[in-house]
Amino acid sequence: MTQFPLPPGSTIGVLGGGQLGRMLAEAASRLGFDVAVLERDADSPAGRVAAKLLVAPYDDPAALKALAEASDVVTYEFENVPAASLETLMALEVEVAPGPKALSAAQDRVDEKTFLNSQGVATVAFAAAATAAEAAEAVAKIGVPCLMKTRREGYDGKGQRWVEHVADAAAVFEALGARPVIVEAPADFVRELSVIAARGRDGAVVAYPLAENHHEGGILRRTLAPAATTPQLSEQADRIAAKVLTGLGYIGVIGIELFELADGRLLVNEIAPRVHNTGHWTQDGCEVDQFEQHIRAVAGWPLAPARTIAQVEMLNLLGEEVDAWPKFAAEPETRLHLYGKREAKPGRKMGHINRVKPLR
Ligand code: AMP
């Protein structure tokens, strides 16, 4: 069995080679670790900064075996890793963090909300459906307008549609691919917030201050953090984070997306069992950012306090927006984070900037 804390010089395996993996690898290397990445694409953002790269599908048995042999602990940078891959790794007796409970809760929107409610964490009202007839029943039960989403594999607003009339339910169900769905009541939110939090191997929980998020076309555009809040709102977020992390027996950083209602209550929209785009502000706004915090957690190191050093406006650079890098590089208050992706497709996350101001 692996002994924790992992000493510097150990290897951290990462499933997935995107920008989150790249920033995890950078943080890991600062602490003296090597990173081994398993990724399908031979030319990925994380693959190019990793000490070891395995190019294969995420469920390739030989590649998973090689990753297990190379790594002292394995983590992942996206939640659609096949659950069976984690089982394969665990059967090979390598530590995996976060564990399979978090992954399965995050992969299925019905299981996710059922878990949250079981922990006393509030969500919108919801109903599950697997056929067109059940979808019509679910819409009638929840009421219109409501949101129909595929239970699995939705991200950045994909795989979801509003339903305006009960009579439309079956057609929307078909348009979503006639796959199992969740029907959600609308959240009448005043703001979308998120809390990034971590739980260590010793059970300690650290939550960063709330971030305020703005989406466009389902994609995160802008984060303002620390968000303007009241102590009550921050305490509510901290309580939610502690319940979720403890309930999952979680190890690592999690992103929890929240709706703030007019009466001050917070509902959880979804949980992402990984470092999160709405936590990128911590790179320039906190003493220790979410990437280092995640590496500390999975390596069994003490978590760092979530101390804030600056006010940050984070803007995602999507597609060709990244071509403006010379302008951003010339702004004294702007920190530029680019992912090294070769091709700027529309909507693709190419990088982000953190505009930094002194704390208010
Ligand atoms: P999701 O893919 O579930 O994160 O949803 C993407 C975005 O759709 C969220 O950030 C919200 O802006 C919106 N949204 C999702 N679920 C609801 C809901 N139940 N009520 C209102 N808006 C929602």
**Distance between the ends:** 47 Å
Low-confidence stretches: none
The number of helical runs is: 11
User: In the CATH hierarchy, what is the class of the largest domain?
Assistant: Alpha Beta
Word description of this protein:
Helices cover 29% and strands 29% of the residues. It starts with 10 loop residues before the first strand and ends with a strand. It is globular. The mean pLDDT is 97. It has three domains: 11-96, Rossmann fold, CATH 3.40.50.20; 125-184, 2-Layer Sandwich (Dna Ligase, domain 1), CATH 3.30.1490.20; 189-357, D-amino Acid Aminotransferase, Chain A, domain 1, CATH 3.30.470. The longest helix has 18 residues, at 231-248. It is built from eleven helices and 18 strands. With 360 residues, the protein is α+β, with helices and mostly antiparallel strands. Strand 4, helix 3 (83-91) and strand 5 form a beta-alpha-beta unit. The strands form three sheets. Strands 10, 11, 12, 13, 14, 15, 16, 17 and 18 form a nine-stranded antiparallel sheet that branches. Residues 124, 147, 154, 157, 184, 186-187, 192, 215, 218, 257, 269-270 line the site of adenosine monophosphate (AMP). Adenosine monophosphate binds at residues 124, 147, 154, 157, 184, 186-187, 192, 215, 218, 257, 269-270.
